[in-house]
Design a protein that fits this description.
Blueprint lengths: L2 E7 L5 H11 L4 E4 L5 H12 L5 H22 L2 E5 L7 H12 L4 E4 L9 H6 L2 E3 L2 H13 L8
Parallel strand pairs: 1-2, 1-3, 3-4, 4-5
Length: about 150
């Protein structure tokens, strides 16, 4: 079986690449998907494709709906959903993705630093695992897929 893993959450660091490289190094049978991580493209896709909007609400609304087509489809097809909460920004979209995945009954792994333990306690409670590093995510995937506890983790 090839596992489908959706990587949701913050887009300002290379955490996705770290997980993908770790999984590839272990030759895990995994395909990864993610939202559009080009911030400008994600924000402006609606008006670029469907036409300009004078009102910022409708500009954002068009983009959010187009992005939702991708997000809902890929989360729906995923075997596992990983949601990363970064340190700098309030990531309402990540919280929404975690709730959506949980409502669909998807196995959910949350990743964030210790500074978010209290604010994300309800999100963490819905998850099957809570990690702090990409290496821990790789180790989780290795264990879940192969039953291997010897994968590197940190």
């Amino acid at each position: 079986m090839v596992w489908s893993v959706y990587l949701s959450g913050e887009i300002h660091t290379d955490w996705r690449e770290e997980i993908e490289e770790g999984a590839n190094a272990l030759k895990l049978p995994v395909t990864f998907s993610a939202p559009v991580t080009d911030h400008a493209a994600s924000d402006d896709c609606g008006v670029e494709i469907l036409g300009a909007e004078e009102n910022a609400f409708w500009h954002d609304h068009k983009g959010a709906k187009l992005n939702a087509i991708r997000t809902r489809t890929l989360i729906g097809k995923a075997d596992i959903v990983v949601v990363r909460f970064g340190e700098k920004y309030r990531q309402w979209n990540a919280a929404f993705d975690a709730g959506y995945a949980s409502a669909l009954g998807k196995p959910l792994i949350i990743m964030h630093g210790p500074e978010h333990r209290h604010p994300l306690k309800e999100v963490d409670a819905a998850a099957l695992a809570v990690a702090e590093t990409p290496a821990q995510i790789v180790a989780l995937l290795s264990y879940v897929i192969n039953g291997n506890l010897r994968a590197p983790h940190g």
